[in-house]
Amino acid sequence: MRRALAILGAVLCLAAASDPAERLADPAQEARARALFREVRCLVCQNESIDDSQAELASDLRKLVRDEIATGKSDAEVRAYLVSRYGEFVLLKPAISWGNAALWGAPFAVVVLGGALLAVNLRRRRAADEPELSPEEAARLEALAAETSSDTSSAQG
Q1: For 25-60, b where at least 16 C-beta lie within 10 A, e where not — what string?
Q2: pLDDT along the chain (157 residues), means of 10
Q3: What is the pLDDT of residue 18?
Q4: Residue 22, SS3?
Q5: Alpha-carbon Rg of the chain, whole angstroms?
Q6: Which of 56, 59, 68, 131 is a good FRET partner for 116, with 20 to 30 A between their CA atoms?
Q7: Percent helix, strand, coil in the chain (nearest 5)?
Q8: Is the dihedral angle over the CA atoms 62, 68, 73, 79 positive or is it negative?
């Protein structure tokens, strides 16, 4: 039974492999294409590379990458072509740029700004909640404080 399952699994793996007719004749070019497949996002699955995806669009993108490599374009030129056609989202690891830094940093900046505004608001509320003493109340408070301190010193002596 185990042997039959192993054979079935091997047959399914072979069936899932890409069609040999799609592959490039030059093994070096095919290796470059396969490396690029792992860097390009499937626009349907969005969290898989076109190397892992079985979507039709991923198949079309694999063919497009192979065609570009077959025409003699470098890896950088193929990436640039894909970005110009589909946007930077097509790359699984987009380039570091000011736009991407702003995109990734904006949520953190909003949280920090919100925390700062909350702290300022709480300080203002505390200051507003403390009542101002009239001069009579301040004098009475000082008298009570003096009485308490004299009672404490006479009780200790």
Answers
A1: eeeeebebbbebbebbbbbeeeeebbbebeeeebbe
A2: 66 49 77 90 86 89 92 91 89 82 88 94 81 83 84 61
A3: 54
A4: coil
A5: 35
A6: 131
A7: 70, 5, 25
A8: negative
Residue 103's pLDDT is what?
Answer: 81
Cα separation of 78 and 36, whole Å? 9
Report long-range pairs for 84-93 (Cβ below 8 Å, ≥24 apart).
86/43, 89/41, 89/43, 90/40, 90/41, 90/43, 91/39, 91/40, 91/41, 92/38, 92/39, 92/40, 92/41, 92/49, 93/39
Place of tokens 């077959």: 70
CA dihedral defined by 94, 97, 103, 104, rounded to 10 degrees?
70
